[in-house]
Automatic annotation (TrEMBL):
Domain of life: Bacteria
UniProt entry tagged with the keyword Transmembrane: yes
Taxonomic lineage of the native organism: Bacteria, Pseudomonadati, Pseudomonadota, Alphaproteobacteria, Acetobacterales
Residue ranges crossing the lipid bilayer per the database entry: 6-34, 55-76, 82-107, 128-151
Keyword annotations: Membrane, Transmembrane, Transmembrane helix
Pfam families per record: DUF2269
Keyword flag Membrane: yes
Official protein name in the record: Integral membrane protein
Amino acid sequence: MSYFPIIVFIHVLSATILFASGIITAIVMIEAFIRKHPKDMALSSQRVVRADWYMTLPSAITQAATGIILVHLMNIPFSTLWVVWTIILYSFSIILWVIVVQLQIHIAELAQISWYQKTPFPKVGWTYFKWWVVLGWPTFFCFLIIFWLMVTRPI
């Protein structure tokens, strides 16, 4: 029995989860912070952190592992240009994601304190939030390009 279709399925599924969890958590967090309601900000930021640990991290690891396996099974040299660019973009995205997760954790802590103490969300928290949004965009576009490279293998 060939494991190839199973590996492809797991790879596509993990890519879907990885991409979707990024979009969904961004929507949840941004909506809560637009409303500026302390309870919503605290709860949504906590849930976003949990979602990253439960969905994004496992799917990111699975995505990398199955990608390496598929390149090997398909006898595609790792020096193939689309593979090289996929690895570069994926690595860049993961580095940004690690930074974003740290920001999310700080944001969640500050939002929790703000909610419990009934104080305004601090300026440093808004700075973290702005950086969280700014760093999310290149990650999003990197993943769009990675999808395109995997599907079309143009170079």
